[in-house]
Specification:
four-stranded antiparallel sheet, alpha/beta, eight-stranded parallel sheet, globular
Amino acid sequence: MSARRASGILLHPTSLPGPHGSGDLGASAYHFVDWLAAGRQSLWQVLPLSGIGPGNSPYMSPSVFAGNEMLIALAPLKESTWLSDEEILPESDLDEARVDFSAVKIFRETRLRLAAKRFFAKSREAEDFVAFCDKSRDWLDDYALFKALDKKYTGNIWQDWPDSIAAREKSAIDSARLDLSDEIDFWKFCQWRFFTQWALLKRYANEHGVRIIGDLPIFVDSHSADVWAHRALFDLNADGRPRVVSGVPPDYFSATGQRWGTPLYAWSAHKESRYSWWIARLLAVLRLCDLVRIDHFRGFESYWEIPADAPNAIGGRWLSGPGAGFFDAFEPELKKARGENAPFRIIAEDLGEITDATRALRKSIGLPGMRILQFAFDGHADNPYLPHNFDETRTVVYTGTHDNDTTVGWWESLDAHCRDYVLRYLCSDGKEIHWDMIRAAMASVAEFAVIPMQDVLGLGAEHRMNRPGGETGCWEWRFTWSKVTPRHAGRLAEFADIYGRQAFFGR
């Protein structure tokens, strides 16, 4: 991570405005980059760019390497003559204010299939497409086949597919690749378009002084190409189902903990392979983004193991993670890929119940951690999340994350005692508490300050992105450009100027 001060906005692309039911990598994303530049903001933090899974969560993807096909902008497909003007007209059931994932998936996938059919009818051997497939074959072949099989056996997890397919017997896999070749090609086409569009958007952002912070979930969904293709790397029963699952014990977010339900790693198998799968994964996300936040960093020091049949996370236990050896294996590969002096460019999400051992691991590797201002105001002056207690400059401060309430929603939920402490600490009258919190983040010694877009707009709890443990209504938030005024960018630019947060701007 750079030693220069910078600031930016947390906003997942699905939250962007646009006519097709959810934000994507099209015109509104470029406009957002322009807006960031106007506000002198040089960081854009996103959630995982991979596909969504149960609960529409981007942290439960069918592949850690593949991009989210629903982020593919449709207008460029029209420009390539693969879609018509009429075919990209929005439909009435596509919501401007929330993402209706079911409607969006139907609308967008229908158009993507039309585009793919026309592409393959005219230019099946297009040089760019062939080159992409060849370069990406280490993960793309398994992913495209997994998606094709998932469609064939709709409603069944891969552990319930025919035994020969679930076990990846060569003759069964070879036969499936032949029988499902058109469907496999469709998913490869989608990945080609996603990575092509993302590369253009990222280049535009970089040229306008904006760096992208990506997000890498530590765990992987059980129903994924990764677990299906690499069973030995996960702690599974003989039938491929998780023996134990991931989560965290009771904490700030939940009295019963969080039962994420994803399989845990067979860390001994990863160590034996010198963490080759993990290294490929980390390098892939660092090619996609300029920096990356690793979710649940504590899991590398110790992780919470929950019996697979447990209804919640209360009855779990802590076990030792791979520790520093994991990062020791990764460092030479990073230098090989990006140069001898390449920095790690990783942010450790070190929230929750963090131990001295976890702090020591993070510091020994030299990774910055995170500070959340909403966690700071318990009325105690020694709270480590209060800006005057930041004991490291190499840290990233947030008013809140995608898991928090919006700052306005948080403020409205506080009792009178906490409110009084917040007002006195921030020298605030409470009328624009979101801007007072943003100023506190910007003024802190933390090198990076990242603000959720909802807090810039001063939105309430109904605009929250995620409720940890919530099963419905999460990940759906969107905004419209009509809610964004020149004052928003102006205030951000003023704070960036006052507090010296223009590290990457114009570079």
